[in-house]
Amino acid sequence: MDVVSYKGGINEYEGDCLVFFVPEGDFSVLDLLREDNKKILKRIIEAENFKGEKDKLLKIPLGDKVKSVYLVGVGKKESVDEEIYRRASAIGVRQMKKDKYRRGLFIGVDKERAVVEGVLLGNYEFDKYKTKKDNENKKGVEEVGLYEGDEENIRLGKIFAEAQIYARNLVNEPGNVINPVTLSEIAKKLAEEKGLECKVYDEKDIQEMGMLALYSVGKGSSTPPRFIHIIYKPEKPKKKIVFVGKGLTFDSGGLNIKPGDYMRTMKIDKSGACAVLGIMKAVAELKPDVEVHGLIGAAENMPGGSAYRPDDIIRAKNGKTIEIDNTDAEGRVTLADVLSYASDLKPDLIIDMATLTGACMVALGEYTAGLFSNDDELARSLEEASRKTGERIWRLPLDDERLRKKIKSNVADVVNSGGRYGGAITAAMFLQEFVGEGIKWAHLDIAGPAYSKEDFFYYQKGATGFGVRLCLEYLLSNT
Ligand code: BES
Ligand code: MN
Ligand code: ZN
User: What's the CA-to-centroid distance between 221 and ligand 3, angstroms?
Assistant: First the structure.
């Protein structure tokens, strides 16, 4: 499907429908219509008592060149923001899909980037494994035109949305398709296509580099772990930023095996990694003046005969020792090495994304990511970016020294589980142990929002691609 700018007249449009974004009580956008059509519309709007309320759709058959007009409410004019446009656009495109319309013209758009994102993300579907599609002759929506849409904003919207869709597609792939080895091949292919540098380290390299924490988590699986490093380097970079993603291609829990209900959906434990790949794809297209590194520790947490065990003591890349209390707290163990490696790159800042703890979902619910940072300005900038992209985040503390004692070990430097209470915080504190002194760092616990149980806004049941646009927005507005 494509989104394009449409510069012709509205009354001459030849597609299937016209979609108007209508602020509450303000129908002035309809003045663009031919008088007779406008009259018909006004009559129906009155009869239906449609006011332009947020998220409401009114469909009016026209039987003209175009078959229907949709009016999508965007609520009070003063409070219309990007997120409202994103949702309204998804409502529009989903109605088109339902009506089997191919082409539509969206009118009243003044935030093109958000509209393009809403259209593309709202239209998304993961049906590649259905040999019989839900609707056999369904071709789907082919083109959305934005009336007098700004070309540059449309370009940006496409890059942002397509990066998020790229991440969704990868996360939705199951563990029998994406494992650490195939994930590393996907990363290589992406890098090749986009002109990025990509280094993949195998299980031998990983051990030689001293990344025994990542290695240990991966060794219970018959598919060995991989460490992936992708680099975008412009001529004269102003900054160096590292994005780190948790890349558990499947998390069975290991020897501390998860009960069936909890193991279900654990293919999404690679969401952070896939977000990093999506970000790198977009970075290659956006070409910012920043050096950007993407790091992924890919492993499968399985209870095989050579699996790591509770009680094991492992030396991480930075020399710190980790006592294993619970093999299901594996993400932080893999990230220990990846964050150490990231710190060795001496970047200006590190942002990691990880489906790290169920505790974060208990704290914040499924729709909000936990934000942790050792730097207030970085945290504030991420919160600012989050308001623009609609990806909810909420900062949690790292300064509770009594809570920090919970990850102290009797036999090693740290233990990989701090127990139930404050579980998202102690996990973040554990990560902090592996971030180099003086490096700005933010951790996003995306366990909740990485996956959706149902369709809502511009999300479908399944992977959401959370974090991709957030990081890109941060990158573009802070460099
Ligand atoms: N991948 C899980 C966290 C998770 C849970 C992500 C639900 C998405 C949805 C993580 O590896 C895990 O198992 N965490 C444990 C930690 C505990 C053993 C200390 C958890 O949250 O229960
Ligand atoms: Mn786990
Ligand atoms: Zn996990």
Answer: 14
Active site annotation includes 332: yes
pLDDT classification of 62: cutoffs 50, 70, 90: confident
Q: What is the pLDDT of residues 279-329, one digit of tens each?
A: 999 999 999 999 999 999 999 999 999 999 999 999 999 999 999 999 999
The answer to whether 418 and 406 are in contact (CB under 8 A) is yes
Q: Nearest 5 degrees, angle CA 159-CA 160-CA 163?
A: 80
In the chain, where does the domain assigned CATH 3.40.220.10 lie?
2-149
Q: Which of 193, 126, 204, 112 is nearest to 158 (CA)?
A: 112
Of the listed ligands, the closest to the CA of 248 is 3
The closest residue, in CA terms, to atom 22 on ligand 1 is: 358
SS3 content of the chain, % helix, strand, coil (to 5): 40, 20, 40
> Which residue has the least CA distance to atom 17 on ligand 1?
329
Nearest CA to ligand 1 atom 3: 357
Given the CA of residue 357, which atom of ligand 1 is nearest to it? 21
Q: Which residues contact ligand 1 via a Cβ below 6 A?
A: 251, 269, 326, 328-331, 355-359, 417, 423, 447
Q: Which of 258, 320, 395, 440 is labelled catalytic?
A: 258
| List 94, 332, 388, 406, catalytic entry | 332
The three-class DSSP label of residue 215 is helix
In this structure, CATH architecture of domain 2-149 = 3-Layer(aba) Sandwich (3.40)
Q: Which CATH superfamily is domain 162-478 in?
A: Zn peptidases (3.40.630.10)
**Residue-wise pLDDT tens digits, 231-272:** 999 999 999 999 999 999 999 999 999 999 999 999 999 999
Whether 137 has a pLDDT exceeding 60, the answer reads no
- CATH 3.40.630.10 residue ranges of the chain are 162-478
- N residues, the chain: 479
Nearest atom in ligand 1 to the alpha carbon of residue 248 is: 1
Q: How many CB atoms lie within 10 A of CB 135?
A: 10
- 456 DSSP assignment: B
Examine the residue annotation and report whether 404 is marked as an active-site residue of this protein: no
